[in-house]
Hints:
The structure is a homodimer of 183-residue chains. Chain A has 183 residues and is mostly helical.
Amino acid sequence: MRADARRNRQSVLSAAYEVLATEGLGVPIDEIARRAGVGAGTVYRHFPTKESLIQAVVLDRLHALTDKARSGIDFAEFFTVMVEAGVTNRAIADVLASGGYRIPADADAALNAAFAELLDQAQQRGTIRADITPDDINALVVGCVATARHRGCTDLVQIVVAGLSPVRGAGREPAGGQPSRSG
Amino acid sequence: MRADARRNRQSVLSAAYEVLATEGLGVPIDEIARRAGVGAGTVYRHFPTKESLIQAVVLDRLHALTDKARSGIDFAEFFTVMVEAGVTNRAIADVLASGGYRIPADADAALNAAFAELLDQAQQRGTIRADITPDDINALVVGCVATARHRGCTDLVQIVVAGLSPVRGAGREPAGGQPSRSG
DNA sequence: CTATAATCGGAACGGTCGCCCCGTTTGACT
DNA sequence: AGTCAAACGGGGCGACCGTTCCGATTATAG
């Protein structure tokens, strides 16, 4: 592959990563091309469709999240990580909510499996209510992202996590830190 | 006003109400016109912009919700009502999430004030954690709607409500009913 | 019934966006 | 340096959508 082609491909990927994170999946290809300093045609040379470009960018993030889930992290912590990923990166938020372009099933499945494993461990340890399913968690993540994006109140995750616990108030008093303060 | 004009205006309103609830704010005007059995021009004769038509439809629902809040309902119940309103009516969901067309500030304020009042009562009664703000509740409603829309699991509201309560497990065991069961 | 003006409907406009085309440029190999 | 295929870029196409326009229609007053 020619050097300029490789360089341009990288520019497009970087620009796409940045713009998608800020603007979400709705950003026009022209905007990505402009920020990459190339023409729209060049973007389509490297990525046949907008969807394929988005996948290239988003899959990278999803794999990073999957790795994080496998790193011995706590369920509640990872829940927060997922929500923060969605809040920080609008493209991730859109993908998690299935709002826009689909991602390959295997990447989705890997992340879901890792997350489900953490959930199972937490349930066996009694930290999380037993009647919660992985699908519930997915939905809650989407909801928390939507919640936190609505305004800056990321700490609302604590409320949801508290609701997930089978028994509250045993050494986990909400006092001491305002769970929500924004504006 | 001519009789046919009045009739058409009503047709447009009915069609808009129905289509907006199902499809959300993104539905094209042409689709509303088609379902109303009129031309697009007729829609614009009665409502100068798409936004004004949406407002006419949505304001009605928001006032109904405000009335409901003032009817002596419990906070947790009303929380559920709000989420269900968003789940049933995509236009309401979009408006609550500020995703699309704005609504007049006074209608929004009235609903918020009524909801905030319910929250305050619940907090004074000790049912809801004292550190929760009305804005937090708004965000949580949006999140719950997004959550429930993601799949059919409306019951996840219970998890959030449980997280909102200062102490759980005192006569409010989650046992007995599967808080989430879907697909 | 006729005149008249309000109303109707859908074609048309302007803007946006994903995607393609093709004349031009440029990097790599000799 | 010369050659040429690969890569570039931006104009253009088709589709969609909100909005406008105007000739045809029709309700209503006299």
